[in-house]
Amino acid sequence: MLTVPELKAFFGLRLQMEQCIKPRYEDYWASSSKSFVSETPGFRSVMQRDRFLSIWTHLHFVNELNPTVDKTDKIYKVRPMLDMLLTKCPHFYSPSQCHSLEEGMIPCKGRLAIKQYIKSKLIKWGIKAYMACDSNTGYIMNLEIYTGKTDNVIPELGFVGSVVVRLLATGHLTNKNHIVYMDRFYNSVPLFDTLFNVYGTFAVGTAMTNRKFYPKELTKMKKMQRGQSEFICHGNITCLVWMDQRPIHFISSYHNPTHKGGTHKRRNKDGTTVDVPTPQLCIDYTKYMSGCDVND
Q: Is the distance from CB of 204 to CB of 135 less than 8 angstroms?
């Protein structure tokens, strides 16, 4: 019979395996006569190998014979555990005002229909997760596993915009004047307008200039000097272009575009450095996106 302390010990060992990776589970219990250098005697002192493998083999989170189980959900076998963890995340942590949206990869080498390949990630093969994180600590407030396209889409926001709304709404991050920072993969003018007017949430991010409703006037700016910025406002939404080595486009429903935040040091081709004037919007975006390093 499996007891609660034994199950806690099992999960403790399983988590520790991510810190000292070995080819097979049996290798963690190998004696010193076989592998003196890589021996991990702590595993043997907690639980026997056969007992660990027996629990691992028979561990289930759902009753497969229950007719109410939604087997069309591609992760239905772990859905109860995932939902339980996600309800605990905001319960035991009070987040700061600023949050970041990121994509994370859960390493996976097995045969799995939802496994993804993302070339730009350090972990290229795995299960993709959309995450809403506290920008100051990287604490995950909510996440959604990507299992393919769904019908749960807000038409005017599209698939990605709908993911953002679901992450904030189910993570209890709406109507609290939070500021959400995101890269250009997520954002659009309709999404920022919806977050501000419907969900009481500010948003800041870089922009894709070819997306609908982004002002084309900002894409046609010519002969901008390094450090110069131009912006267009409509209601609570500000679209801004700032010239660094190339034009960088932003959208914000929080910042005053006239605020000159400071400077960034840049190196010239001759090796000298120069202070480039930078709007506060750009400084905040760099600060809160880089502070939440949860990509992999």
A: no
Identify which of 245, 231, 282 has the alpha carbon closest to the alpha carbon of residue 260. Answer: 282
| One-letter amino acid for residue 122 of the chain | L
Tens digits of pLDDT across the chain (296 residues)? 889 999 999 999 999 988 888 888 888 888 866 667 778 888 989 999 999 999 999 988 898 888 888 888 888 898 998 999 898 888 888 888 999 998 888 888 788 888 888 887 788 889 999 999 999 888 999 999 988 887 778 888 888 889 999 999 988 899 998 999 998 888 889 999 999 999 999 999 999 888 888 888 888 877 888 888 888 998 889 999 988 888 899 999 998 888 877 887 787 777 788 888 888 898 899 888 865 443 33
**pTM of the entire predicted model:** 0.82
Count of Cβ atoms closer than 10 Å to residue 192 Cβ: 29
Helix/strand/coil for 236: coil
* 44/50 Cα distance (integer angstroms): 11
Among 282, 277, 93, 131, smallest CA distance to 206 is for: 282
